[in-house]
Amino acid sequence: MSAPLLNVHDLRVIFAPAAPGQPPARVVDGVSFALDAGDSLAIVGETGSGKTTLARALLGLHPAGSVSGSVQLGGQELVGLDEGRWRPLRWQRIALAVQNAGTAFDPVYRMGEQIGEPLREHRGLSSAEATARAAALVAQVGLTERHLRAYPHQLSGGEKQRLMLAMALSCDPELLIVDEPTSGQDMLARAQVIALLRAICAQRGTALLLISHDLAAVSQLAGQVAVLYAGKLAEVGATRDVLSAPRHPYTWGLLSAYPDMSTARDLSGIRGQMPDPTHPPTGCRFHPRCTQAVDECRRVEPPLQLHNGRRLACHLGGLRALLRAEGLRKTFTTNGHLGPAQNVEAVRNVSLEVYEGEVVGLVGETGSGKSTLGRLLVGLLDPESGSIVFEGNPLALNNGSASRHLRRRIQLIPQDPFDSVSPYLTVCQIVREPLDVQRAGTPAERRERVREALAAVGLPTLDAFLARHPHELSGGQLQRVVIARALVLEPKLIVADEPVSMLDASEQAKLITLLEDIQNERGMGLLLISHDLALVRKVADRILVMRDGQIIEGGPSSQVLAQPQHEYTRALLRAAPSFDWYTTSSGGNRP
Amino acid sequence: MIREALRLPVAPAAAAHPPRRVRALLGSEGVAGLLLLLILAALAVFAPLLAPYDPDAFSGRPLERPGAAHRLGTNDVGQDILSELIYGARISLTVAAGAAAGTVALAVLVGGAAGYAGGWLDLVLMRLVDMILALPRLPLLILVNALLGAGLGTMILTIALLSWPPAARIIRAQVQSVRQRGYVRMARGFGGGPLYLFARHILPQIAPLIVFGLVTAAGHAVALEAGLAFLGLGDPTAKSWGLMMRHALNLPGLLLTDRWLWWLLPPGVCVTLLVLALALIGIGLESRLDTRLKQR
Amino acid sequence: MKRRALGFLISLWAVLTLNFLLPRLLPGDPLAALLDPSSSAYVFNSATRASLAEYYGLDRPLVQQYADYLAGTLRGDLGQSIRLNRPVGELLRAHLPWTLLLTLTALSAASLLGVLGGAEAAWRRGSATDKALVVSSVIASNAPVFFTGMILLIVFGARLDWLPLAGGRTAFARYGTPWEAARDYAAHLALPAVTLTLALVGSKFLLVRNSMIGVLGEDYMLVARAKGLSTGRLKRHHALRNALIPFVHHLAAHAGFALTGALFIETLFNYPGMGRLVFESVVARDYPVIQGVFVVVSALVLGANLLADWLSYRLDPRRREAL
To answer: Model pTM greater than 0.80?
Structure first.
């Protein structure tokens, strides 16, 4: 195998502090990747992750001394070259289409002059030759000679974006770096730029380094993707693999914050803020925002290494399965009052996983076994066979004392709040009960945690309210009390069994939003059991469909909803509530 | 009121330390300029205490060299040059203060009225501003002062009359933007009249511009006064630094001896220092004001 | 551009009208005093008095005076000098070339130095050279011209005796070759021109430096660097070209400042330009000459404004359409 076209190893861009005494800004901090000739790689990340700084470092545009590490282009080391050695490399071998094409052109020269400039400077072409070449380039990006004669201020943003590409291609570079080609453009211009870039790379065999936060554009343009967070790579792999099955918690968060046409659930941003490059966090840079961070993450920086076939920088090998159940089986025996005793297989050989911070919807008709499965998972029922592993620890199938400690980290929100609280206890006693059972903290601390939990679900924390009894509360209030009770032990996983089915539509919407907020804020896993697909699709990242005690279909929400594989799922989808207008016997839809 | 007028945008932390507050207002250039200005102002205020002689008295023989009695010697009629120099600060600073006050008063009046009233008044006043800005200032000053005959008051008045337009333009822009803000509209809704609104809401907003305008106008006025006096258009009874230089230069053969060292050089240095001090304060203020000053 | 030309004409008209009205309307009747035997300003020479009475025509109605004045001025008749008893137009024609020579020399030198220095300083901003240049520019642009001129005059003219002290050429000199003539003129021009250049260069330097720093931060400069252009091309073809737009725009104001600065410097160096003429006319209350200088200098300043507008319009394609 020959050496890659571009080999970046341990690249760092560290800017000197603005004022003496302040720490330097470590904007790119040890990034390594390689790009073969003719291949394409996308670098993705939020604003401020260091993407643009990285791109400029590859052209030697940063002040001398701020870049260290190694950048090899076709075997030639670029880091440390002086300005005179950089010059022939720029544009002839590496060209850059900058992010904001609107301000990227010198306002006092015509477009043709600017596009032809590198040809005249590098290739020694005459003015006429350069103009002819520029005309050909401009035609290639779908524009005309009129655009060559125009000044920058006379053209639209989309036109300038394309002329930027034409200019970048003028010296036929081996590597084209394109910084945010789609940002700030309307959808049609965006589609045109993407089509253009695909055509260019296919025709010329130019290697493409795409810098973008537009994941849809990335999926269409890049074979490989590298996820950059706070100056470090978090995850690297084939675009299809990374974007369809993200493994790093950051990649996962980035995807759930990204809207596309197939997104089903409501968007949720990644909690917290990108760290300041002058004060990067210790250990893993993502740990303050990560839902699964453990002590090691705070202390030790994770290297980028292979975990199950994917390059990840995560001590935990990426997004962890919070809960992994395998081969669960539960049979009920009817007691034969009405006939011979019968075995009903409520759960038949079910396996499922819930990842950190993930919302999984479990849907099915009444009697499909989904509630039974929920009870098995939280330990209210014991399975006949199978295993449940929670946070890497197997849960004993019989409710042993060792697993009690783990059990508190999985909480159930039952369907009927009235059924699940004692009418003789006060609100305070109800919410405090798990703490009392687990003997957590002093009475004063317990009371404080009760108040916090109540506040989290939007209930009053006044003494008068704490002293109320269940019959004095509305259904919605009581369900919130039950949710507060589930939260008070700070669980990592909540199994919610039809949590809103007893409530009216408005109260349902409020509670679902609340659950979603709490889940996102605390980074919990949530298994939402419901027969209501319309509701589940609003919150779930993944949907499992259950029938007759088995999971018959599962996958990302968008996929299950858009392309249901199983006839039963299609039936469920058809049955989900939607407004179908009543029409008269003549049939047909409303005009 | 003065505290109010000087309330420029300052970092809250700086308010605790008075010296630091001044520094935050003016920057190090500005502080240097302010110190220089204070020294020259002290010369003017304490002139009777500092000057060894009455500057108009014939206290020595003509054209004495510097000595124990006359530190900077005497002029061609036997007046003490050091005393002339010290009293000269009064003239320069009077013209600076008077012309600056007049300039800024006119600028606030015209710019405030145009910005506040808008409409046809704004249009007329701004055309006037354009007209005056297009006129060459120094030739016009020479002509008017020559026709009117020399006099300190005339000079101050004519400098002010020809210098206000740039400041008026800036103030108008600021008044226009302040007028649109919510709290001003609210106050008008409560029934506040134009004068109340101007004093309570608009003045504090244009105060930094007024301070900046005063400083720059004063600097220009000092240079203009010295120049006009030098051309012989100054008040012959008000012996300013510019007039001292004119007298010195009128002496035939002045430059052939080293007499210029104590007669010509000191007033020139004084004028330069005063202009520089005001310019430094202006630079310090400007770099700390918002971009609105850059509209000029 | 048409609007600019119209503005120029309106301003010129305003200057001419002011020149007419000011002497007549200002308190103290300065013109009447010239003809009043009881006044200290009384002109004793009867021929001169007659030509003054004819020129100002104070006994005619104001409107008539105004019409005569405008017609006369447009023909180039600016009256008669009281002191020298010669037509003002003739005096101005004799003095104007000297002033223009001085002003244009200094303006070109200051522009060249300011642009090159400002561009270099911006390119190396923060360096010791940059800081030293900024500080000296602030001082140079604030020192009154007649003061800097004095120092130069004394040091290089009187003390070192390198250059002539006064005048525009050696009196009664007969030049053998044009080269000798040029040397003599240049030697006399050197000190006044250096003085004026010093007064002008600071503000030009600061302006170019600031606008250049602004341009260097623009995206198109980053792209130009990424294109692998040579440093010289980056600096001159892209950065300086853009930084020149505000510079040219301010050139008009600088031209006015340069002309008026020249008036002082000529007085100081006894240079035979219009400054000297004003200086002597002020003493003698030679109003027609002062008025004539006012009109000519004003017209020159207004013309410079127009020229600078046209130049900056040529330089900036964005303005070409706006106008």
So the answer is: no
